[in-house]
Specification:
single chain; 4-stranded mixed sheet; binds FE2/S2 (inorganic) cluster; about 80 residues; alpha+beta
């Protein structure tokens, strides 16, 4: 199971974490990955200075802007499955 945690702290919220969560949920559903990817929210990861929304995948950290979600899904999530 791939554990994907999206920061929903206030700084990341302003950078679009809600949109990132919704888009990832959609991509996971449409690709039938519900039993392979566990999506959850996480409070501030203390990396607020990063440009995008902070997301940890297992324990690796990524910074993703809302318009990069699709690319992130393909390059990071699908490659680790
Ligand atoms: S609010 Fe996301 S890292 Fe701080």
């Amino acid at each position: 199971m791939l554990k994907v945690k999206i920061c929903i702290g206030s700084a990341c919220h302003l950078k679009g974490s809600r949109q990132v969560v919704e888009e990832l949920q959609y991509l996971i559903d449409t690709n039938n990955l519900k039993d392979k990817v566990e999506l959850s929210g996480e409070f501030c990861m203390n990396k607020c200075t990063n440009e995008g929304v902070n997301i940890s995948v297992n324990d690796e950290c990524f910074s993703v802007k809302p318009d990069q979600v699709k690319q992130f899904f393909t390059d990071v999530i699908q490659k680790r499955l």
